What we know:
By secondary structure, the protein is an all-alpha fold. The chain has a single domain (9-192, 201-402), classed as MFS general substrate transporter like domains (Growth Hormone, Chain: A, Up-down Bundle), CATH 1.20.1250. The chain is 75% helix and 0% strand. It is built from 16 helices and no strands. The protein has helices at residues 9-27, 31-38, 44-62, 65-70, 74-97, 103-131, 137-166, 168-187, 211-218, 220-250, 255-263, 266-283, 285-298, 309-340, 347-376, 378-389. The radius of gyration is 21 Å and the shape is globular. The two termini are 38 Å apart. Mean pLDDT is 87; it is low at 405-414.
Amino acid sequence: MRSGHRLGRQFGWLWGAYGTSALGTWLAFGAFPLIAIQVLHAGPAEVAALSCVGAAVGAAVAVPLGPWVEFRRKRPVLIAMDLVRFAALLTIPVAFAFGVLTFLQLLLVSAVVAAADIAFRSASGAYLKTLLRAEDLLVANARFESTAWTTTIIGPPLGGAAIGLLGPVATVVADAVSYLLSALGIRAMGGHEPRPERPDAARMRATDLLDGWRYILADATLRRLFFNTALFNGLVMATQPLLAVLMLDRLGFAPWQYGLAFAAPSIGGLLGSRLARPLVTRFGPHQVLVATGVLRAIWPIGLAFLGPGTAGLLLVIGVELGLIFCCGVFNPVSATCRLERTPAGRAARTLSAWAVTTKASAALLTAVWGVLGSLLGPRTAIGLAGVLLLATPLLLPRRDHTSQPEPEPARSRT
């Protein structure tokens, strides 16, 4: 592995596979709710359930996957999870073609995809830690982050055009194919990966399912970052349906304006991810993590003052631009901190527990804020989330996480 920005052929294939599947995901953004509404004539409660229940069930199913992934070669797991998502998504257009598509099938597919996504992320993070040197992790995470925001910019407009011409099922096909291409890319990486060895020969027990959470909670830096991330992401995600109601129904924005309000600011995420490494080099990772963690919490409360017309549209774009820019810097630094503080033998379990919690908390808070939006109105509920977000910086790590050595993995119990 050469120093600098060249991270090697294997990382190049992994990065390309990630970009392909991310583009497919954003091409199909909103496809499931549209299928539920246009094809199955689902009501608001069913659409809300599709967003919450699928993610929550997927998170629950993924709980035993962390320990399972830990003691297996990561590259075959990545390929398997891509193929699972490909097969699950492909059942949607097949069922549609034969006229047997049901709402229950949409729920089941969303749960399977959510569980496979968690397993893929945990395996990917653990594999990345063994693939690259520690000093290259921030560069790699910044590249993933910039790719995520790039696909966010170009995916929804292209997907919207495809939906307008071919219907929402066509974008689900594109998403499925993207996972197949991702699996082929990871297969093309090559290289030898040794099989991880269990510390003992005992079978996995029920208590082993909590290993990831035990490790996170035992580390002061990871613990604070864990709660900060789960609460921040959950509150931000919880306001998205309410903001859609406020903009599209109460304030009369056109759908294209709503799409523009969230697509254009994604440029901030691309810029932020590009600046993450230079900022860390100049100021240090802890300072950048805390500063951007504070700044990202300030922006969302501005959405409570949203009004109609051009001024309202510019307000949303400005708030989202500031929020996404801060997240674009924060996310790769946070991801690198997690990997640096987690031993390779515990990475999959820790990352799986992290992903399960953030996905479940987002689903739970989305449901709670849906109720609050019905009782208080969308604007008040959005404002309440903004106020709570102002408190999330209190959960950020207080000490420089780079001043402590990486913890050693605890011995397994016999």
